[in-house]
């Protein structure tokens, strides 16, 4: 089963939502390696990345009933991964401070701002803007921002120069800034690299 098919499989998401463990295992097989790779790139530690992956999928299982079957589960998982990574980094950085334990606990439990905003509306607007980009531009942007590939890797995959990759990303970001206007900072948090 290829990656695009998971996005188009509301049946799998519906099965997950109803508590089907096999659907959960299929989702873990399909997207687990990508999420793990993303975590490894961000925390630079295989063991921490694997713990994050388990936490992310455990949270997905616990909140499965709240999943919108029409939502892109890949975006959901990477948003969850980003939030878990941010919390992980914040907790790690607090371990090296001289703050009292109570203060560290309060700061560590404070949800990041990105969790308090309406991500669903942001995702819809993001998807609409992505559809308006040219096919190559959209593909380059997704490979860079959603899949975490480097400019060099994208250039090799698509048979184009790294300068062309950079130009596509630059023009995509320009469109995003223009379209999102005041909400651009939320988009930056949404696409945090």
Automatic annotation (TrEMBL):
Pfam families registered for this protein in UniProt: Sigma70_r2 (PF04542), Sigma70_r4_2 (PF08281)
The organism's place on the tree of life at top rank: Bacteria
GO process annotations (BP): DNA-templated transcription initiation
Domain annotation RNA polymerase sigma factor 70 region 4 type: ranges: 125-174
GO molecular function ontology, one term from the record: DNA binding
Start and end residues of each RNA polymerase sigma-70 region domain: 29-93
Keywords: Sigma factor, Transcription, Transcription regulation
SUPFAM superfamilies assigned: Sigma2 domain of RNA polymerase sigma factors, Sigma3 and sigma4 domains of RNA polymerase sigma factors
Similarity comment: family membership: Belongs to the sigma-70 factor family. ECF subfamily.
Protein name: RNA polymerase sigma-70 factor
Organism of derivation: Chitinophaga caeni
